[in-house]
């Protein structure tokens, strides 16, 4: 038998301040308590998604601007049509 203790779940170091300053006044209704398991699950998913996107996009952007050699795009075998993001097909 699985027991879920909704009122004994504690928030962690990131979720506590995020819930206090952002989620409580702007996202969640006032009737939903802070120790609700569904509320903590949704909040942690939002924090994880935003953090994961930032962990991916910040190094990728720095890599493109600081490390990637853009002179390779002038090579004759690189199709000019494929550089605009639409692919080689017409239309």
Largest sheet: number of strands, sense, barrel closure: none
Number of strands: 0
The shape, in one word, is elongated
Tally of helical segments: 2
Query: Which blocks of ≥5 consecutive residues have pLDDT under 50?
Result: none
Order of helices and strands: HH
Q: What assembly state would you assign to the polypeptide chains in this entry?
A: single chain
- Computed over alpha carbons, the radius of gyration is 23 Å
| Helix fraction bin | 40-55%
Percentage of residues in DSSP E strands: under 5%
How is the secondary structure organized here?
Elements (H helix, E strand, L loop, with lengths): L14 H12 L10 H31 L24
Question: What does this 3D model show about the protein?
Answer:
The protein is elongated. It has two helices and no strands. It has 91 residues and is an all-alpha fold. The mean pLDDT is 78. The protein is 47% helix and 0% strand. The chain has a domain at 34-68. The N and C termini lie far apart (59 Å).
Which short descriptors sum up this protein?
2 helices, mainly alpha, elongated, 91 residues
């Amino acid at each position: 038998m699985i027991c879920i203790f909704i009122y004994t779940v504690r928030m962690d170091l990131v979720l506590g301040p995020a819930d206090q300053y952002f989620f409580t006044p702007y996202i969640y209704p006032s009737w939903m308590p802070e120790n609700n398991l569904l509320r903590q699950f949704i909040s942690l998913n939002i924090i994880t998604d935003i953090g994961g996107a930032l962990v991916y996009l910040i190094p990728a952007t720095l890599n493109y601007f600081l490390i990637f050699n853009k002179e390779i795009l002038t090579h004759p075998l690189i199709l000019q049509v494929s550089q605009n993001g639409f692919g080689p097909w017409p239309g």
